[in-house]
């Protein structure tokens, strides 16, 4: 990793920590005015300063000028992913920022829904649900979040010359996020999800190893299985054929009804709207289309298709399952 980029990344982390340090005594942020946060922030500042001092020493020995005005936010973001020292510290800082500045569930749902619709992400993709990180707009430029990552990507590609697949495959759905997604699934107490957890765990392990035929084959029947679980768990008939748009729409409507009847906060219902077409596409045989990606439930499960083992298909199924499980957990 470029020493100038590492230096800029650690300085950026230091700036964030100083921001917290200045906030901690303000009355309007009394929720972080605790020994726990004080000690954590102090420890992180010491760690970041240690890294900066080491880089300063290396640069002085090698005669390197550490100031580089050409480093962009995109460069910093990539450094947070690829440099293990930066990544570990950034994740710890982000945990603090999300605890302090996390927006309400309804606001988060609105953000996710509008980003998917306004940027033509849906129905080809849906955003992560359980791991999507959003902070209040007043501190977004300082702290950063997934909204900013997406906005920066779209600003760099106003003419849509870069396929939206790149955003999901190379930027959003990192190995760390997939691990976090799996941890969130493991924390769901419902017995139906726990009975499926070993299946999901092995499928995501296969995905991380690049074994996409295995991950797709394993995950695609779990989508229908979890939908049936949710419907049956709420005392409804889950005996739908799974072949037509009407049947899938009835299943999604059953999910909405179950949510409405069992949860006061219906703001998350909009997240089911964007999942309908993605789920229904799993049951549509459109092999005659030149851009067909092989993600056809019956063709895969009955051994008729051989082109379905791609990172894109695997990630799409992970995202569908994440939304279903996340909403199931919040009933």
Descriptive report:
The structure is a single chain. Helices cover 66% and strands 0% of the residues. It starts with a helix and ends with a helix. It is mainly α and 331 residues long. Among the domains are: 3-72; 175-329.
Kindly list the characteristics that best describe this protein.
16 helices, 66% helix
The average pLDDT value, as a whole number, equals: 81
Count of alpha/pi helices? 16
Strand/helix succession: HHHHHHHHHHHHHHHH
Overall form: globular
Low-confidence stretches: none
Helix content: 55-70%
- Supply Rg: 22 Å
Label the structural class.
mainly alpha
Distance between the termini: 45 Å
Total number of β-strand segments?
Answer: 0
The biggest sheet amounts to: none
Fraction of residues in β-strands = under 5%
Brief sketch in words of this structure:
The chain is mainly α and 331 residues long. The protein is 66% helix and 0% strand.
Secondary structure layout plus pairing:
Layout: H1 3-23, H2 35-62, H3 73-82, H4 84-101, H5 105-118, H6 140-143, H7 146-156, H8 164-172, H9 175-186, H10 191-208, H11 212-233, H12 245-262, H13 270-273, H14 276-281, H15 297-301, H16 311-329
């Amino acid at each position: 990793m470029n020493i100038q980029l590492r230096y800029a990344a650690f300085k950026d982390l230091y700036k964030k920590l100083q921001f917290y340090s200045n906030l901690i005594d303000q009355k309007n942020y009394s929720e972080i005015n605790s020994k726990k946060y004080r000690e954590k922030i102090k420890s992180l500042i010491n760690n970041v300063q240690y890294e900066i001092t080491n880089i300063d020493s290396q640069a002085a020995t090698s005669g390197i000028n550490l100031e580089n005005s050409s480093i962009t936010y995109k460069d910093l973001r990539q450094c947070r992913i690829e440099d293990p020292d930066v990544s570990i510290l950034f994740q710890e800082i982000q945990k603090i920022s999300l605890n302090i500045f996390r927006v309400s569930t309804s606001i988060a749902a609105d953000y996710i829904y509008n980003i998917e619709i306004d940027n033509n992400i849906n129905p080809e993709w849906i955003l992560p649900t359980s791991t999507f990180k959003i902070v209040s707009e007043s501190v977004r430029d300082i702290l950063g979040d997934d909204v900013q990552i997406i906005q920066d990507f779209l600003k760099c590609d106003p003419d849509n010359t870069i396929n939206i697949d790149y955003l999901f495959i190379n930027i959003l759905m990192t190995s760390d996020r997939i691990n976090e997604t799996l941890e969130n699934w493991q924390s769901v107490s419902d017995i139906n999800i726990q009975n499926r957890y070993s299946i999901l765990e092995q499928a995501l392990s296969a995905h991380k190893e690049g074994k996409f035929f295995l991950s797709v084959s394993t995950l695609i029947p779990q989508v229908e299985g979890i939908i049936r679980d949710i419907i049956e768990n709420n005392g409804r008939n889950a005996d739908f054929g799974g072949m037509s748009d009407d049947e899938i729409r009835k299943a999604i409507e059953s999910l909405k009804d179950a949510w409405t009847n069992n949860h006061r906060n219906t703001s998350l219902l909009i997240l089911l709207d964007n999942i309908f077409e993605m789920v229904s596409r799993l049951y549509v045989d459109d092999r005659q289309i030149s851009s067909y990606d092989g993600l056809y439930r019956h063709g895969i499960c009955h051994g008729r298709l051989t082109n379905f083992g791609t990172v894109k298909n695997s990630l799409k199924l992970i995202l569908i399952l994440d939304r279903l499980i996340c909403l199931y957990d919040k009933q």
